[in-house]
Amino acid sequence: MQTLFNNIKGDRLIWAIVTLLAIFSFLPVYSAASNLAYVGGIGSTFSFFIKHFMHLLLGFAIIYGVHLIPYRYFRGLSMVMVPIVLVLLIVTIFQGTTIEGSNASRWIQIPIVGMSFQTSTLASVVLMVYVARYLSKIKDKEISFQESILPLWVPVFLVLILILPANFSTAAILFVLITILVFIGGYPIKYLGIILSMGIITLALFVLFAKAFPESMPNRVDTWMSRIENFRNGEDTEADYQIEKAKIAIATGGVNGLGPGKSIQKNFLPQSSSDFIFAIIIEEYGLIGGLSLLLLYSWLLIRIVIVSQKADTIFGKLLVLGVGLPIVFQALINMAVAVELFPVTGQTLPLISSGGTSIWMTCLSIGIILSVSVKREEIKEQESVEENPLEILSEALE
Q1: Which partner from 114, 233, 335, 393 sits 20 to 30 angstroms from 317, CA to CA?
Q2: What is the pLDDT of residues 156-199, one digit of tens each?
Q3: Local structure of 97: helix, strand or coil
Q4: What is the reported pTM?
């Protein structure tokens, strides 16, 4: 065990923030699991607690393993993984499991172990690494739009198109984040306008196709449009049931909250342990708990930016932003949905909500960020030794 802790490297504050979020997550997940255990009649609260513990244990194993890998290897791995995730997304569309009532195939079953895996989350991480690799390659080079279509935008749009039918929110968020990353990476703004136009046209064509052939993707476009329309008009429909219960939970929590495990709305919110867990947190821990959580994510964002700025290569800088910003972005969207500042998206709260795939992919991203910070530490140690000739002489004598 001591050897394990000695091998933990990288940004210590990121380690601390991630650990704090993971430890805190047990409280709301265990509390909210009663909805599934007793109301839904699925298992027991303790079984959900153990399941969440195992997900986080594997997640931290992923962080530990990935952060020991030199981050330069992720350049080549992204090239290999893009075709793999394209195949996985295609398999998911035709063979994936569906969400109740929405006919959206998002998960595939992992053979032997019998666990489900949401392929779009893996595709999101891989695509951000791939984009960071390409941007670092063309940095300070004159490049035409035609030259960037095949190596950059074709893989991006292929992945987005394959995610779009089952998960519009993930595809939309990923497109926005890629746009932000390429802007930061110095991609010409005049070309970004063309890409944004292509994205809008692609979405419009997809909606028209879905409307013309509704049997191909039943309920999906209607679900998206109704959510946006209801949010814009402020209408109270059955689809807004979860939002209404989340608002009640937040109003009930007040400043100090009802206390751990004392949430009432967890018994009425179908997604109380995942999509709407932030509402349960405020109900039980009040505004103080909600703001504390927001502070932790803000602190994580600051550390991500600092690690990016201190990275020794352009690829390292863009890589950290590419995999780090989505974590905080997703957290803010989840919170915004709970307080009705944003339409329902189905995005979980990173490292807090229950669910294996989301936790594992978040941990994969954290591991990559730490890998970049490890390299920076090694450079600093090397510079320190070079500046101290007495240490070099001492080591030589030994």
Answers
A1: 335
A2: 999 999 988 878 888 889 999 999 999 999 888 889 888 998 88
A3: strand
A4: 0.88
